[in-house]
Specification:
homodimer; alpha/beta; 7-stranded mixed sheet; Aspartate Aminotransferase, domain 2; 2 domains; globular
Amino acid sequence: MNVGKFLPPTRTLLGPGPSGVAPSVLEAMSQPLVGHLDPSFISMMDEIKAMLRAVMLTENQMTFPVSGTGSAGMEFCFVNLIEPGDEVIVGINGVFGTRMADVAERCGAKVTRVEAEWGRIIEPAQIAAALGKVKPKFVAIVHAETSTGALTPIEEISKIVHGADALLLLDAVTSLGGCPVRVDDWQVDAIYSGTQKCLSCPPGLSPVSLSERAMDAIRGRTQGVQSWYLDVNLLANYWGEGARVYHHTAPISMNYALHEALRLVLEEGLENRWARHEANHNLLRAGLAEMGLGIASQEGHQLWQLNAVSIPEGTDEAAVRAALLNDHGIEVGPGLGPLAGKVWRIGLMGHSSSKENVNRVLAALKELL
Amino acid sequence: MNVGKFLPPTRTLLGPGPSGVAPSVLEAMSQPLVGHLDPSFISMMDEIKAMLRAVMLTENQMTFPVSGTGSAGMEFCFVNLIEPGDEVIVGINGVFGTRMADVAERCGAKVTRVEAEWGRIIEPAQIAAALGKVKPKFVAIVHAETSTGALTPIEEISKIVHGADALLLLDAVTSLGGCPVRVDDWQVDAIYSGTQKCLSCPPGLSPVSLSERAMDAIRGRTQGVQSWYLDVNLLANYWGEGARVYHHTAPISMNYALHEALRLVLEEGLENRWARHEANHNLLRAGLAEMGLGIASQEGHQLWQLNAVSIPEGTDEAAVRAALLNDHGIEVGPGLGPLAGKVWRIGLMGHSSSKENVNRVLAALKELL
């Protein structure tokens, strides 16, 4: 069997993720390996945890990257919090809410679905109404729905949830690093993200954080956690503060990459980074408007980092995407579910969120439409 | 918060993994990203699957890397095959057999443990005896026990297992790429490995393969798979042959690395690679013998890629390991469980299995003992 080296084509990644990665992150990832219990690696793990806390704006001890992609982080939160028979409420306004409900049911939860049209947010009143009917262990919300471009505000929902003595679980895969995510201020109890969106690190790790309230709920379990790989009781001894107990072998090179990516986030500063994402979104939005194109998601709740652009009537949307990719080297994403054929998803995430990229994609669309 | 760049120290990785990584693998990993649904990436996924089949000596369609470390591959095999109440037999002669039994019980299996002293192999007669008492869905064996350095022969066990109409599940984390692993010849039905041992790719992916017999068992399930992230029914549509259905975002850079690592394995040739591992093991063994040091695992069944070296009476084993690391830049592993304090684990895996490395570690040990 004779397979040649893989030489990836040059792409500008303006889809729903992965986003473009800074050269210094690629460089960090290509450094020679050390062992996962090497003192130098353990110090680096401590720095990653500290930087993740800074990026998530939390003091939570239990903050670290799960050794899998964002979906593994989702499963981590659900398997650790749910015991069979537990009631949970899941907000569903796109692909990832749908997925959360599926994962919750696989853990044995009784799921109450609170649904909104794809592209719209979950309203606090909907959560309040659901809490009038069931008393759940937690309420799960997708902060930034990557499939629709809608950003559900969390502060008011959090007050309602905690008022009902429930925990709040947040999917921050696409929001973290691109717009405010304030874990402690918002009293988020369980949160997971991905590395390949606004942190601009390759996919493969999922930063997570659990509050003390969440840890108390986990300590109070009467049954074991159904996953060994994702059991926080075991992971706590590996990623914890004291002597490390071998669990799995951490993905060394991916952690090198995450360390550098987090360093870049903090070097830029969270506020500056959010402002950059906002400015480039506004630039894209204005340019699209000039071409008569709008953004499909709910007005006033549109993501800066992921824009669901309405496709003009009569356009062969797949042909436009193929031409963007093949003739311009630009990746944008298709719509999913009810939005398939109706929107393109243009991501301006992390390193990919630049004025230059906005101008490039606008120019290419002008040419193609 | 001001964190400096992480600059890993230079290490020669002669522990239980990760092993050293070839420069071309590091280079492959540092290439710019493409999207995970990019046509170029999808072609590369097909090449990875084909190369994995060649390395595993199988025609199994369902052969691909799980997006997690070897322990995620273990969990993948167990969650897909087990339904609550299923009987399974697990061979336990070290850390990883112990872990398999734990994972199986978390899936709801009734586990029959077949145990051997750490350092010894699981004997075919033990499996035959257990099969006289229970009728399990499958028998799970660790091929190469990384914690003890013992290699359990599989051919005879496989005949006994299939004679009892059960499936055979194999942990090949440390064996694959370092010694013969013949999935089809041995009729292995479910197998998982890791990238960071004899494939000499960084940790983060777990190559797996399922036979048609295993897939039939999975198709015949009456209940859903408890894990969403590891559900083969969903993964089959992502890693399958037809149109790709989005599941998770594959770790792009890690797959670049695995592609190049598999290319190197096939370029060297499996037989040559096995012979190299055998020769360097023999060289180490002879050099140790000259120093009066033996290998603790069962005579005739010692791994080429992982050597459990008996520690001389009265030696401060941790001090020797620390001196190897700090003064010689060589990582070796400590003993685990009942072998803690009794052995060092010297790995000669993949890129790390070289005459030069054997001579370096022997010279360093001579100096320190």
